[in-house]
Structure formats: structure tokens, C-alpha cells
Amino acid sequence: MRRVSTIAVAGICTAALAFSLTACGESSTESGGKDKGIGLAFDVGGRDDHSFNESAARGMDKAMKELKVGGKAMTAKNNETEADREQRLSSLAEAGYNPVIGVGFNYAKSIQKVAADNPKTTFAIVDSVVPGKNVDSIVFGEHEGSYLAGVAAALKTKTKKVSFIGGVNNALIQKFQAGFEQGVRETDPKVKITSQYLYPNNDKGFNDPAAAKDKAKGMLDAGNDVIYTAAGLSGSGSIEAIAAQKGAWAIGVDSDQYQQSGLEKYKSSILTSVVKNVDVAVFDLVKSVKDGKPLTGTHRYLLKDGGVSLSTSGGNIDDLKDKIAEAKQKIVDGKVKVKENP
Amino acid sequence: MKKLDKNKLILAVAAPLLAIVAALVITSVIIAATGKDPLHAYQVMVDFGSKSDSQVWIINKATPYYLSALAVAIGFRMNLFNIGVDGQYRIAAFFAAVVGGSLTLPGFVQIPLVILVAMVVGAIWAGIAGLLKTTRGVSEVISTIMLNSIGASVIGYFLQDGRLAIKEGNLIHTPYLPDSAHFFEIPTTPKPVYGFVIVAALAGLVYWFVLSRTRFGFDLRTVGRSESAAQAGGVSVKRMVVTSMVLSGAVAGLVGMPTLLGVSYNYGTDFPAGIGFTGIAIALLGRNHPIGMALGALLWGFLERTGTQLEFEGYAQEIVGVIQGVIVLCVVIAYEIVRRYGLRTQQRKVGEELAAQARKSDKAEVTA
């Protein structure tokens, strides 16, 4: 019995202490600075993922240099919760960074909340549409870029087998898959396409090069000779596996992966990359904030706006130039409608 | 007798003290090795962590951690290593979200129903591992970790547009729970504390009561100490294994509830994962004690809250992960050192007493 009361007392004391502190404590929002420049919150994988995040980081670097603003980048960890993301965004806003940019759809909900709490700061989200007066939603036409990759793959394959590896099976990556499959099919219906994902629903798929390497090896063993990987940082594992096999081609994603110094060893196997110009979008936004006319609402960066494109560095698709240009024109003219779902 | 109690008390205080000091020293060395000032880091952490919104954040973050630690601790007390809490709470939360999202009932029926579904699903998922162990001798370490992957795949299968989920932009999630299923909040400023913290505290109380005040708890601890002794004492070990796995799974089912009923109101691709593994660390940290684990969970929340702030001060983001690892290691090692020391002193004392007795009886024989 004695032990019950001690534990009860201890419990009550702790609770009382916690709440009394809560009542009189200063809130962290009461301190902070202003006009510190760009606050960039990365998705998993971090700045140097040679892919999606790196593209956003390039935009930030360019803005810092050309517009002479400061900046701070923070990175998400695997297995984060909503609270972690909200904290990262509100810390940036409260520290005085403006605009605050959430790179990746994972920030959709948290941006909405934090933007409402910080009406004077401009927020932006990449890859998602979020309502809010002070939110700029930046989305891309990944399916259109992927369609062109599909055209290139169908023309380049010798085994008549190509494949797609997605990081996580979600709506965003399905856009890549859908565009790629349609592009292959409409170019050469005889080519067989295999599409697989690293993880059904865990964002670790964007941060697991080892899993992508295994998956790519399996695809190569099955006779696929052009592999398109849309998986953020994981993609480097896939490219590494493909480079080990002669005659096989990798298609990169988000950044022009042929020019990534981290992937230099494998670049002779990189056919092309579906480039998502996140950097352009980031720069546009920062400039608009600096000019006092912050962008808000939804901004779509499609193939016709140059928001997505197929990279040509390395010259590996130079022989297909005309066909790709033709396909691009059809999409731009609206003659070909690229599906967003496989 | 009185003196022994005092020794015990000193030993009980020595272990956590040793762990804290060792952890502080080691992390200071690590921070200093990265070329930064460790004292300033602690100052930043304490300053920021004691702000009112930080406190709320920490309590909210610690609630699922605590429940997860309880689930793990039930297994630990039985000498069962339930690594599967992670899979159990996720699959439990998923099906609870599906059931909750498809019904609209008054809150006092809906909320208990959602919680009940979660506990039952968690219990079934953990029970599979318990049955495999008793009927087929499969180690629960292997089966639970395998069940984690199976659980993730089951969720992945159903969590698709047109199956049990709906699409909202890039997020795919189960239908939203109706407003009646929103758990109450404790109105603190500037942000509210989730009401589920009270359920967590109650769960801790029940855990303590069942384990240390009931026959079942006694049996469970006995099996944990020695299976053969328990068997000899008339306890059915197999039954205890299944029951405790089921209980562990039922508590694991609660882990996702603060998030489901208080934050997201659905199970989506962004539902937090990995809390089951954090629970293992916190159960180790809190020595399976209900209050120890509560402190551990709060400490974990504190470190995570203040870690972001350290980043603003130019410290590496990974430093918090390092601190967490160091603390767990220090606690485990410190307790083992103190336990061995205690055992040695006890042995010495018993030895001395026996020797003294032997001398006395020798003397008695001589005089006789």
C-alpha cells in the first residue's frame, strides 16, 4: 500500500510540475530574428542525393549568389512524424527565414498548418498542392518527362525488355511509371515493360541505395537492358548495378545525373535523365519574395514550360533526337495526352 | 536488516547516476571532437527544451513512445524479446483506421471501438509469434521481426486507391475518421496536449498493478526468471508465453492511437513508423519500470525536440542520434556493473558470515 501512495504522489507531482511550467514558461515563438533568407527543408536523402533534393539545393545556391540572400537547409530523417516536420518548418519560420520551402510532398500537411500559424512568411511546397494564402504550390509534369524517357528506352533497347524501378509506390512515383510505360508502348508495342517498387509505402525507398542495387540486378538478370529508376537517393544504387553490366543503360531522374560528380564513375552507362527543374522553381519563388511580390497559389512546371526535360549530356541519345523532339511536340500540342496513373 | 536496505538504496541510485555521468562525459567528448563547444550545446538544449511549446511537443511525442516501451517491457519481464511492436502497432492502427473511417457512431462508442479494434489486431499479430514459439519452437525474435515485414506488405497491399484507401494529392490514406472519433485535448497554451497522454498514464498504472500485485504478474515474472522453476511451481509456461505475447501486442495496438485519434485521423503513407524500435530503447532505458520508462520517453522527446535547435547553432544533425545511442549503452552497462558489484559484496558478506559461524562452531567443539 505504501508503494502505491509514493508512486501516486510522484506521478501527481510530475504532472503538476509539467503543467505549472507550461503555464508560466516562455514560448519559443517569442524569440527570433527576421530576413535571414531562404529556409529549405529537405525530404529524406538530404542535400546530396544526386537527384531531387540536389536540384532544389542548386536553386537555393543560385538564389543566394545572385540575389544575395542568406539561407539554411535542414534535412529530414527516416521515419519522421508530422510533429518533426512541423517543428522543422516552424523553427525555420520563427528564426526569420523567408521563404520557407518544403521540398517533397511529405511536407504537405505540415506546411498547411505552419503557414497558417505564420501568416507573414511565404511558404512553398514542391510536388504537392496545398491551400493557403501564403503558400506557393510547385508541381511538375513528371509523367510528360517520363514519357520521353519511355520513347528513348523503347528505341534503345536491344533485348526488347525495359523496366521501371520506383522508390515508393505512391501517387507521385506512379506518375513517373505511367508516363514511362505509355511512352514505351506508343513507340514500340512489342517491348516488354516490367515495373517494380522498392517499398510499398515506406519513404525509406528514397533513401536505400542497397535495395535499389539489388532490384536493378534482378532486372538485369531477367534480361532488361534499359532501366529507369525514380527513387531519389536510392537511384545511385541502381545506376551502380547497371554500370557493372556492359550494354545496359540507366535512365536517371530529377537532376541530370550524367553530370553528377558523385556518379562520375558510372556516367558512361547513363543514357539520359528526366530532369525536374526544381531549381528554377525555387529561384523563381525566392526572387518573387525578394521583390516583395511573393508567388502564391499553384504553379505547374510542365514540359511546355521547360519545367521537365530530357537531358542530352553525354550524347547518348543524340541518334534519337528527332524522334524525341517529335514526341515532345505532340505532347506540347496536346495531341498526346500522358496519363498520370499506370 | 536495516543496513541491507540502505545498501540497496545506494546501489539503486548509483546505477542511473553512473549512467548519466558517463553519457554526459562521452557525448561531451564526441561534440568536442567535432570541433564544437559541448557546454553551449547543453545550454541551447535546456533553454529551448524548457520553453512552453517545447514542453507540449515533448509530452505529445513521448506518449506513443511510452506505450511502445510498455508493450516491449511486458515481453522483457517474461524474457521474451518482442521486436515486432513496430509491425503490431502499424497493422493495428491501420485496421483501426479502416474500421473507424467506415463508421459514424457517437463518440463514446466510436472511440472505444477504434481502440478495441487496434488492441485486438495488435494482439492477434503478436499472438501468431506466441503460438509459433509454443507449438513449433520458433524464436520470437525471428518470428516477430518477420511479421514486421509481412505486416508492412499487408498494409501496402490494402493501402491503395480503390482497395481500402483513398488518394489525396500524393498521399494515400484510409478515409478520414468522423469528427466524433476525435480524442479530446488538454487545452494548454500555445498548443494543446493530446488527451491520450492520460490513457498512456493509465496503461502504465495497469502495467505496474498487474505485474507486481497480481498472481498473473507473479507467474509472468517467475517464468522470466526461470522457466523450469515456474514449471515446477505449477505454472503453464506455454500458456504464459502466448498470453504475454497477446498482452504485449494489445498494448502495442495502443501505440498508434495518439496519432490516429489526435493528429492524422487516418492511416496514410505518412503514418509514423519505427516507434516500436524506439520503444525497445526506452524500455531498456527505463529498466521496464513504469516510471523509469515514462522518464525515458520524456528524455527521448526532449532530445528530439532540441536536436533541431542544435542544427541552427551549427551542430551536426546526427549528434542527437549519437547521444541517444550513448545513453542507452551507458544505462545498460551501468546497471550491469552495479548489479555485479552488488552481487560480489553480497557474496563476500555471506562468505564472511559463514566463516564467522564456522569459527564459532570450531571453538565450541574445542571447548566441548
Protein described:
With 342 residues, chain A is α/β, with parallel strands linked by helices. Chain A has 10 helices and 12 strands. Chain A folds into 2 domains: 31-140 and 280-289 and 294-301, Response regulator (Rossmann fold, 3-Layer(aba) Sandwich), CATH 3.40.50.2300; 142-275 and 312-333, Response regulator (Rossmann fold). In chain A, helix 2 links the parallel strand 1 and strand 2 (71-74). Chain B has 14 helices and 4 strands. Chain B has helices at 2-33, 38-49, 52-77, 85-102, 107-136, 140-158, 196-213, 215-225, 227-232, 237-255, 257-264, 275-285, 290-312, 319-367; strands spanning 166-168, 171-173, 185-186, 193-194. In chain B, helix 3 (52-77) packs parallel to helix 7 (196-213). The longest helix of chain B has 49 residues, at 319-367. Classes of the chains: A alpha/beta (342), B mainly alpha (368). Chain A: Belongs to the BMP lipoprotein family.
TL;DR?
With 342 residues, chain A is of the alpha/beta class.
Distance between the termini of chain B: 32 Å
Largest sheet of chain A: 6 strands, parallel
By oligomeric state, this entry counts as heterodimer
CATH hierarchy: architecture of chain B: Orthogonal Bundle
Please tell me what the overall shape of chain B is.
globular
CATH topology of the largest domain in chain A: Rossmann fold
Q: Largest interface by residue count?
A: A-B, 46 and 49 residues
The overall pLDDT average of chain A reads 86
The number of E-state strands of chain B comes to 4
User: Order of strands in the sheet with the most strands of chain A?
Assistant: 2-1-3-4-5-11
Briefly note the structural class of the backbone of chain A: alpha/beta
Question: Secondary-structure element sequence of chain A?
Answer: HEHEHEHEEHEHEHEHEEHEEH
**Contiguous runs where pLDDT drops below 50 for at least 5 residues of chain A:** 1-25
State which percent range the strand residues of chain A make up.
Answer: 15-25%
CA-atom Rg of chain B in angstroms: 24 Å
Number of domains of chain B: 1
What's the helix count of chain B? Answer: 14
Structural classification of chain B: mainly alpha
